[in-house]
Every structure is written in structure tokens, then in C-alpha cells.
């Protein structure tokens, strides 16, 4: 998995979304990240220290391509604004769902 800068992550995410638009799907996940890249130590060993501030780990995956970034606490509003802009620009392929009115609702209303 490739760990990228926040702005580069959004750029690569746009490329990933455009390549997945015609053939497959892609997923984006958010996870709380404490900065440790090692597993918890066994019993009897000293525990890893707790961080002062947690970060956010963003991952994107499409087929075999995986990218990720770590968003620090002070960068969250800027990153969420960039992510929202990405979502607005790439949600053009969604199909509108037709609402079906049931006879029971029509009789009551």
C-alpha cells in the first residue's frame, strides 16, 4: 500500500475513480490511526504509549490498486473539503431511483 501526501491522495483518488468508472468499483475507508505500525506487544512486555492526538487513516482500493494517506488533526477540515469536492465531481454516474407509491400510503394520504 502506498502512503501519500493528502493532496496527492485526492489526485490519485480521482484517477482511481475514473479508471474504475467503466470496469469496476472502488472503496474508500476511514479509520482512526494512532501512529503505531507495529502490533500490540505480548503479555509481560511494555505497552506502546498512547498518542496525544489520534489521526485519520484514509484508504482507497480498486481491484489490486491500493493507496492511503494519514490526515493529522489540524488538516481534517481542509482534507474533508477536498474530499467533498471530489465526491461532488465524481457522483455523476448514479442512477435515479424511482419511488413506488403503495396503495396503502395513497389511501391514507
UniProtKB/TrEMBL annotation:
Gene3D superfamilies: Signal recognition particle alu RNA binding heterodimer, srp9/1. InterPro entries: Signal_recog_particle_SRP14 (IPR003210), Signal_recog_particle_SRP9/14 (IPR009018). The keyword Isomerase does not apply. Its main location: cytoplasm. Keywords: Cytoplasm, Ribonucleoprotein, RNA-binding, Signal recognition particle. One of its GO terms (molecular function) is endoplasmic reticulum signal peptide binding. It is found in: Cytoplasm. GO terms for biological process: SRP-dependent cotranslational protein targeting to membrane. GO terms for cellular component: signal recognition particle, endoplasmic reticulum targeting. Signal peptide: none annotated. The keyword Glycosyltransferase does not apply. Component of the signal recognition particle (SRP) complex, a ribonucleoprotein complex that mediates the cotranslational targeting of secretory and membrane proteins to the endoplasmic reticulum (ER). SRP9 together with SRP14 and the Alu portion of the SRP RNA, constitutes the elongation arrest domain of SRP. The complex of SRP9 and SRP14 is required for SRP RNA binding. Belongs to the SRP14 family. Heterodimer with SRP9; binds RNA as heterodimer. Component of a signal recognition particle (SRP) complex that consists of a 7SL RNA molecule of 300 nucleotides and six protein subunits: SRP72, SRP68, SRP54, SRP19, SRP14 and SRP9. This is Signal recognition particle 14 kDa protein.
Amino acid at each position: 500500500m502506498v502512503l501519500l501526501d493528502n493532496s496527492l491522495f485526492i489526485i490519485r483518488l480521482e484517477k482511481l475513480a475514473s479508471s474504475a468508472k467503466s470496469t469496476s468499483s472502488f472503496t474508500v475507508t476511514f479509520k482512526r490511526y494512532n501512529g503505531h505500525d507495529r502490533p500490540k506487544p505480548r503479555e509481560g512486555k511494555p505497552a506502546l504509549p498512547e498518542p496525544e492526538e489520534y489521526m485519520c487513516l484514509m484508504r482507497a482500493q480498486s481491484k489490486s490498486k491500493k493507496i492511503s494517506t494519514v490526515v493529522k488533526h489540524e488538516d481534517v477540515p481542509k482534507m474533508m473539503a477536498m474530499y467533498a469536492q471530489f465526491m461532488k465531481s465524481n457522483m455523476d454516474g448514479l442512477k435515479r431511483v424511482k419511488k413506488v407509491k403503495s396503495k396503502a400510503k395513497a389511501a391514507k394520504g
